[in-house]
Amino acid sequence: MRKLFSIMFSAVLLLLVSAQGTWAQKTKVYDLGHYPSGTWAELHGINDFGVAVGKGDVAGDQRMIGVPLFGPNAGNWFESGVSSSVVDELLPVISNTGMIAGAITGDNGNSEAYAWMPNHGGFHLGTLPGGYRSYAYGINHRGTFIVGQSFQKLQEAPFIIGTAVVWTPRVNWTGGRPTLAWEIHALPTDGLEKPGAVFEGVTLRLWDGWGVNDSGQIAGEAYEYNADKDEWWEIGVVWNPIKNGRQWEMQRLPMAADFPYTEPLAINNLGEIVGDVWGSAAAPALWKKDSRKGKTWELTVLPTLNPTPMWDIAWGINDFGDIVGTCYDPDWVPQATRWNTHHLSSAKLLGFPGDWSVAYGVNNLGIAVGGYGIGDGPEQAAAVAIH
Question: Is residue 23 part of a domain?
């Protein structure tokens, strides 16, 4: 039954994508506002059934929130019921199973990675042994991998270490009944670090897992900050699954000649990765395999709304090559932007409402989500059907 459903769903998606030319003149904008008792909202992810998730305030308390775009509950907001104290690091995502991943305020007062489903209980994803804080940033369509970061403070040196991690589900039997649990795995770094790096002056050495696809490929980064020199170092990597998806090996992604730092943020089921490359400015970037069965990636710096990049980032990509992100216009105003892997000659506005806008995710139906604002007013949630 599950296999039949997957085949039917894939066929529907194929029909939707083949109709792109017809839909191009029928762009639909969803002006979603915010949670009823809140004042602001921003969407970060959307699954292929049109359920969007993000963050916002609920009666003055910041939480993960969501809203379906289709069906009998279309436009009816829901929320996690749990406080999330960290604003910048809260980037909720959703799978096609309805599983949502993000972060909440843990029992120790720090952020803790958390997974939940509307109208059901949640799961504390926890940290690596000895950890004190964690975040979940990515989940695949099937809901079988959640990726993020677990933090540790080392006693022997005055710096913080963050390890890229992946959580995988496990079924436990308690009292003859199955219960779901999540196992945390540290992703390997294979000794990769800045040449000549030493502990002295280094206050941060962090690894992030940002995006994951259904085969278990994970896109992420390593970065380091030296407080004595006020100096950053950042590289992009991809972790490829081995041994039945329970172990991974790391591969470094290529860098751009004019940008010393790389930041991969999302990966689709073709292994195409988007993010940004940056230095004095940031440019959106695409890493694409050199062939269908290739094992290396080629980097393309994507066009922006201006001849010269400002602080422009590609945040999301779907399985059909639609890319969404944010570019700055000539007045330094952020605008929700789209690209496509099959037509890389230009960046186009997504058509969000408001004076300024941002876009973070896109599903396989070509619906992009993010937020917008009018003047100095609070941010509001929005979605746009590209096709």
Answer: no
Quote the CA–CA distance of 332 and 325 in Å, as a whole number: 15
CB atoms within 10 A of CB 246: 12
| 100 located within any domain | yes
Reduced to 3 states, what is the DSSP secondary structure of residue 118? coil
Amino acid at 290: D
What's the token pair of residue 349? Answer: 């506005």
CA atoms within 13 A on the CB side of 59: 5
Place of tokens 């396989």: 364
- Give, in order, the Cα–Cα distances in Å from 202 to each of 160, 170, 227: 9, 37, 6
CATH code, domain with 50: 2.120.10.30
Structure tokens at 140: 């695949």
Closest CA to 110 of 68, 153, 77: 153
Dump pLDDT digits (tens) for 295-348.
789 999 999 998 888 899 999 999 999 999 999 999 999 999 999 999 998 999
| Residue 122, burial from CB neighbour count under 10 angstroms (0-12, 13-18, 19+) | middle
Count of beta carbons in the 10 Å neighbourhood of residue 372: 24
Start-to-end Cα distance in the chain: 30
In a domain, 13, yes or no: no
| Strands 202-212, 160-174: pairing kind | parallel
The amino acid present at 195, given as its one-letter code, is P
pTM of the predicted model, to two decimals?
0.88
- Separation of alpha carbons 285 and 277, rounded Å: 6
Q: Is residue 4 part of a domain?
A: no
Q: How many domains does the chain have?
A: 1
- H helices of the chain, in order, are 2-18, 20-23
Domain range for 304 is: 29-377
- The series of mean pLDDT values per 10 residues for the chain, 387 residues long, is 38 38 58 96 98 95 95 95 78 96 90 90 91 94 96 64 91 78 89 48 74 96 76 87 84 91 96 95 93 81 90 97 96 96 93 97 98 96 94
Task: Say if CB 146 and CB 135 are below 8 A apart.
Answer: no
SS3 of 4-26: the string is HHHHHHHHHHHHHHHCHHHHCCC
- If you search the block for the tokens 């989940």, which residue do you land on? 139
